[in-house]
Structure formats: structure tokens, C-alpha cells
Amino acid sequence: MLRKASLIVFVATAMALIVNAISPKGIPLFGPLPLPEIEGVGLIGLEDAWQSFEKGREIFVDARSAEQYRKGHIPGAVSLDAGRFEERLSSFLALVPLDAPLVVYCDGEGCGSSREVAELLKEAGYRNIRLFQGGWEEWVRSGYPRETEAGDDTTVSERQEDDSSTAH
Known about the structure:
Shape: elongated
Largest sheet: 5 strands, parallel
Number of strands: 5
Radius of gyration: 21 Å
CATH architecture of the largest domain: 3-Layer(aba) Sandwich
Number of helices: 7
């Protein structure tokens, strides 16, 4: 009797999991794992990121690839691709003072690029760094403003080149 009850529970659970997996309205069983904190780097959510954006006192740093940045980014954000960090760091240092408040983001909670860039910026001497956990995906879902290729989407090194060419 106990064996039949266990089998019924097992089959019912398996069927429920299968239906949930194939349903377009299925409930995700696992969310992204929370990233461990980085000492001295704050974590912020969407509301804090929006308030920082509105006040305009912090520099948003997009840690995604240059291609993703061109397709869309938070207005005014500076591209600092995690994969090309070393080659872009000197340009970034020339434009952004070490005491500047920074908000680093990438795709979203499952993306580790923002964390990697924040750690590297900290090693480079930046001390006022916060990670926007929801990142680009949450920003877009919320309907907040964004820029694309048609807007001012220059990267740090391109901005530096523009500045030096106009200085002559």
C-alpha cells in the first residue's frame, strides 16, 4: 500500500514538472544564484539605479561587449567591456577620476561581467563602486530610457580620440 502511494506521488510530481517545463507560462524552478559580495563594493537594485541616473551624479559603466553596448545601453553610460578591460583601462583612467562614483552593470543577475569589471576597477584604485544587480535586462523591462547606435554610444577610447582631435 505504501509502495503504491509512493509511486502515485512520484508519477504525479514527474508529470507536474514536465507540464511546467513545456508550458509557456511555466514557473522557473531555479533563479540565478546570488553572487558573493565584493568587499567595498555596494549592491543596488533598480530603484537606486534609477535615482542615481536621474540625479546624474554617478557614471554608469556598461561591462557588456562593445557590440551589445552599441545595440543599446543606459544613456550616458561608458563602455568598459570586461573582455577588453586591460586595453581600455588607460583611456578610462584618463577620463574618469579615481574618486568618481561608479555604477557598473551588465546583462542582469546571472551575468558576471559587471562583477569582474568592478573588481578590476577596485584594483585600479576606484573606491566608490556600486553594482546594479538587475542590469540591462531589468532596466529595459522597466521601460527606462536607453540609447542605441543612433544616440551617443561612443566608447571610452573613442571619446578620448574625439577629445584629442578637437583639442588641436
